[in-house]
Amino acid sequence: MIDLSTKYLGLKLNGPIVVSSTPLSESIDNVRRMEDAGASAIVLTSLFEEQLALESRALDEDLSRGTESFAESLGYLPDLDDYRMTHEVYLEYLRRAKGAVRIPVLASLNGATTGGWVRFAKEAEQAGADAIELNTYALATDRSQTSAELELQLLELVDSVCRAVKVPVSVKLSQSFTSLPHLVSRLDDAGAAGVALFNRFYQPDFDIEALEVRPSLHFSTPSELLPRLHWAAILFGHLNIDLAITGGVHSAEDVI
């Protein structure tokens, strides 16, 4: 039997296949089945930064009912009920998932600003997360904001989280950065133990009949694997940071 064991984020894994963040992991039965099928670790579905903002808004409304005490911009966020888990439910589910399997379980946090991530990262660590994956995004909509400022915002986020927890932190990146080798090197300096290449954005679509903006979900295709392979090859051996590939992997041949 070939020994496929490896290390990722300092964690000893029985093989190179990690289940990426997916709604499938919202079932404890599925989590057990993933382990039985040979998964070496599981990244739980993401908790979104907007969820923390909405929960904070809901609490603020309860404490300050009848006043205009929260930012108007929060009105553009989805209703809290649109999310599958509140952050307290997420933490409890993390504890249950960790107790259900022997393989490492990673918490996934999806956001762009420091905000409540430091506090929540600590809570996820206390709940038993073996590592934390920061699923980051940076969408430039202000013409005065430079790419350097976006990168600095990301680096400050990673640095803050890494300083707050003892478990390893991985950063799930988009492929839209101008110089990935330089950015990944700075993430290494900021304390990140690994990077995942790459995250995918759920792009809204325009319904020209109803004149509405509607969410649109497109699953990955095998063709998306090639840029990930190329960037992994470029980064490999030049940085003291672990690499993971996510997206576009549809077959055993893709894994190999």
Question: Can you tag this structure with a few keywords?
Answer:
alpha/beta; two-stranded antiparallel sheet; TIM Barrel; 8 helices
Q: Please summarize the sheet with the most strands.
A: 7 strands, parallel
The top-level CATH class is: Alpha Beta
Listing every helix as H and every strand as E from the N terminus to the C terminus, the arrangement reads EEEHEHHEHEHEHEEEHEH
Determine the strand fraction and express it as a percent band.
Answer: 15-25%
Count the domains.
1
Assembly category: single chain
How helix-rich are the residues, as a percent range? 25-40%
Helices and strands: which structural class?
Answer: alpha/beta
Query: What is the overall shape?
Result: globular
* CATH fold name: TIM Barrel
| Distance from first to last alpha carbon | 17 Å
So how many helices? 8
In order across it, which strands form the biggest sheet? Answer: 3-4-5-6-7-8-11
Low-confidence stretches: 55-83
Total strands: the figure is 11
How would you characterize the overall build of this protein?
With 256 residues, the chain is of the alpha/beta class. It has a single domain (6-255), classed as Aldolase class I (TIM Barrel, Alpha-Beta Barrel). It has 8 helices and 11 strands. The protein has helices spanning 28-36, 49-63, 87-100, 117-126, 147-164, 180-190, 225-235, 252-255; strands at 6-8, 11-13, 18-19, 41-48, 105-111, 131-136, 169-173, 194-197, 204-207, 212-215, 242-245. The protein has a 7-stranded parallel sheet with strand order 3-4-5-6-7-8-11. Helix 4 packs parallel to helix 5 and helix 5 (147-164) packs parallel to helix 6 (180-190). It is globular.
